[in-house]
Known about the structure:
- By secondary structure, the protein is an alpha/beta fold.
- It folds into 2 domains: 3-136, Rossmann fold, CATH 3.40.50.620; 153-268, Rossmann fold (3-Layer(aba) Sandwich).
- Helix content is 34%, strand content 23%.
- A 10-stranded mixed sheet has the order 3-2-1-4-5-10-9-6-7-8, with helices on both faces.
- Helix 2 links the parallel strand 2 (35-41) and strand 3 (74-80).
- Residues 110-118 and 241-250 have low confidence and may be disordered.
Amino acid sequence: MSAADFVIAHATDLAADGGIAFAHGVALARDGGCTLVSLHANPTAGVAARDLPTAEALQAAWAAEGGPAPAAVVHERRTHDCCEDPVDTLLDAMRTLQPDLLVVGTHRISSLGRLFKGSVSEALALNSVCPTLFLPIGEGGFVSAQGINTLARVLIPIGDEAAAARAIETVTRLAERCDVAHLDVHLLHVGAGDPIAALALPEAPRWTWHRRAAEGPLTRAIGAAADAVGAQLVVMATQGHDGVLDFLTGSHTEQVIRHSHCPVLSVPIA
């Protein structure tokens, strides 16, 4: 399977070392044999694609810290300038690229602050047709300081059966692609009923399935469950904003992203 079969887009803000999102993009591309494309919108005067961080330099830094020897990673660096708004510019670039996964860093700030300031990361995900991996800036992820993918525990909140199936298919495909040895997948349902019982779960030695139930406000229940199982990734199926209240306070996925201490994978559904 060639690198071109799976493309990871990384939206960069020109952090000197690429930041946590870049680290995860490089590690996933390395382990999965994927193409990694770093995108920077509306470059400032004098900034060119060659100025963006490189996978080679990051892997060399990992190796110096005792990590694995650098491996070949297909890494393209691009700047794109078409619109005044950085979100529109990145979306224009992604329409041509058509990535399989978008990787972005996001700050944990208040809902009110986001309403007026806006979040480039969330706006990209809301308008993207591919899954988006949000990495909380200032928090740890599942790639170690030595560049090792440590992903082992995932939490998937379960709503309706179709959305659950899409979330499960996406995370197991990504884990399989990146050769994750074993994954404990915790399925969480909040409220009445038991939709988890109706799910057809993939059968493979590398997956272990756990079922959990909770009561109370959804976002709070998800956060509590993530802490309880030591989740390294929360996977949320999302349909974007459904109404005025969602626009003001954010969808459940956005609320989880804003409060999560671990990465969140947003999976769009039709």
